[in-house]
Design a protein that fits this description.
By secondary structure, the chain is mostly helical. It is built from 23 helices and two strands. Helix 2 (32-46) runs antiparallel to helix 10 (209-221). It is globular and about 75 Å long.
Length: 516
């Protein structure tokens, strides 16, 4: 079938109002993204501070002080110990996401958020007080457990609370919080780098406690979702909560569909075994491929190491940190574009446009670095060339921020049926964290050995992922979360995997969605 061809999928419009209650709960829940964002932004900043490098990573500091012009610019930061500091968080988050899926299913989404916030708080205190590399990495591991719990529970919570017509925009509150966290971290790094006395890095790391406190306190006051309440047998509470979040007493039709989904879910004793069945193949493939591709856009290379990268291509210390602030601002404001358009133009359009824009920017950055530094990595860059690279990186970040950034969390969180939703989200988070770990661990070595070719490497993946979305992802905008199987059933490739009994709440009224 041709890409973009429209078909009729049987989905319902349950009606209901957009209530202040649901907006506030989603806003509070989305703050769970702050801890992840702050951490993404803070680690690259402190690892570009000389006083931090001198104390914990003296070999890197020595290379940075070599101004003979003979040092390979691509290899200055190549240190496995340094990358272990950054990437240990992500392997911890990977493992924690599986524990979080059990917590989320048995105790509810809010308990997972609360747990994540508390553990992240302890980790931030340990990092701020660190006196050696062991304390630093132990603190990072605790931060990782907190991130694993938050990233497992928050996107699912938002998708379950939001009405279908606004699910995309409200779920993207999570990505917006991530971008705010990154920007806040960049601003903090810029400020703390100027602190005299050499303890600025401690302030940067310890201030991770602020987003942790916001998330923890917020989680205490959050209600649980109707889906989670039904999953745990609280039928009346679930119906009352559904009426409250929809602002309407007439929720019987939606409640019956949720109840039907919940009854089906209770028959599944082993969600981890069941998720491997053919009927869940489309969702399983997406929960693996989307987070895999999200990391291989190369975005975390920019976010972890933006100050390091800008320092490498010729910006000074302050300029490198300020350039990271600029990319952080672009990241945040571009996310608003996605929030405003995702439920109108759809997920596919944003994925495809963002992919094309990222690909163009990566190729151009690779070409410029290749011309200026060559294969040897020795050379310098003029101010005009440095600013051009900064502009291209900002254009790349903007494209990511309205496509793969938010949609990489939104789409996997909205496509799973209730019976395997916690397991599915755990796979999504663990795959995301595993490849974040791989990229974080390998990037500085890859930059050293692949040099400017690294940007072509990620550009190749962006081309592949854009084609993958074009052919294999159906449009999910405005489709009620418990009726998502309807669009998989209609898809040219995935339809054969979805049995007729998997279609919930089939209705005579049709809603137009895109075939792909």
């Amino acid at each position: 079938m041709a890409g973009g061809m429209a078909i009729q999928a049987d989905t319902k419009d349950y009606g209901g109002k957009i209530t202040m209650f649901v907006l506030m709960t989603c806003l509070v829940a989305a703050t769970g993204g702050l801890i992840f964002g702050y951490d993404l932004g803070i680690s690259g900043g402190v690892t570009s501070m000389d006083v931090f490098l001198e104390k914990f990573f003296p070999s890197v500091y020595k290379k940075m002080q070599d101004d003979t012009g003979k040092t390979n610019q691509y290899c200055k930061f190549d240190s496995q110990l340094l990358t272990s500091f950054t990437s240990s968080l992500y392997i911890a988050a990977l493992v924690a996401s599986f524990a979080a899926s059990i917590t989320t299913r048995i105790f509810g989404r809010k308990v997972s958020m609360l747990t994540g916030g508390i553990i992240f708080l302890v980790g931030s205190a340990l990092n701020g007080a660190a006196t050696n590399v062991t304390m630093l990495i132990l603190g990072r591991i605790l931060l990782g457990i907190g991130v694993g719990y938050a990233n497992q529970s928050v996107p699912v919570y938002l998708s379950e609370m939001a009405p279908a017509k606004l699910r995309g925009a409200l779920n993207m509150g999570f990505q917006l919080a991530i971008t705010i966290g990154i920007l806040a971290a960049n601003l903090v790094n810029y400020g703390t780098a100027k602190i005299k006395g050499g303890y600025g890095w401690r302030v940067s790391l310890a201030l991770a406690a602020v987003p942790a406190i916001i998330m923890t306190v917020g989680a205490i006051f959050l209600p649980d979702t109707p889906n989670s309440l039904l999953e745990r047998g609280h039928q009346e509470k679930a119906k009352t909560m559904l009426q409250k979040i929809r602002g309407n007493q007439e929720v019987e039709e939606e409640f019956q569909d949720l109840l039907e989904a919940s009854e089906a879910a209770k028959k599944i004793e082993h969600p981890w075994r069941n998720i491997l069945k053919p009927r869940y193949r489309p969702q399983l493939i997406m929960s693996i491929m989307i987070p895999f591709f999200q990391q291989f856009t190369g975005i975390n290379v920019i976010m972890f190491y933006a100050p390091v990268l800008f320092k490498t291509i010729g910006f000074g210390d302050d300029a490198a940190l300020m350039s990271a602030v600029i990319t952080g601002l672009v990241n945040m404001f571009a996310t608003f574009v996605s929030i405003g358009t995702v439920d109108r133009v759809g997920r596919r359009m944003l994925f495809l446009e963002g992919g094309i824009q990222m690909l163009i920017c990566q190729i151009l950055v690779g070409v410029i670095l290749g011309i200026k530094f060559g294969v040897e990595g020795v050379g310098s860059m003029s101010k005009s060339s440095s600013y051009l690279v900064l502009f291209l990186i900002c254009a790349y970040v903007a494209a990511f921020a309205w496509s793969w950034g938010p949609l990489g969390w939104l789409v996997p969180s909205e496509i799973f049926p209730l019976e395997i939703r916690s397991a599915g989200q755990a796979i999504n988070v663990s795959v995301n964290m595993f490849f974040t770990f791989i990229i974080a661990q390998a990037f500085l070595t890859m930059l050293c050995h692949m040099k400017f070719g690294l940007f072509f490497f990620f550009g190749g993946f962006v081309l592949i992922m854009t084609l993958f979305i074009f052919f294999f992802l159906p449009e999910t905008k405005n489709v009620p979360i418990e009726e998502m199987n309807n669009i998989w059933k209609k898809h040219w490739f995935w339809g054969k995997y979805i049995p007729d009994d998997a279609i919930i709440g089939v209705h005579h009224t049709s809603a137009k969605v895109s075939d792909y």
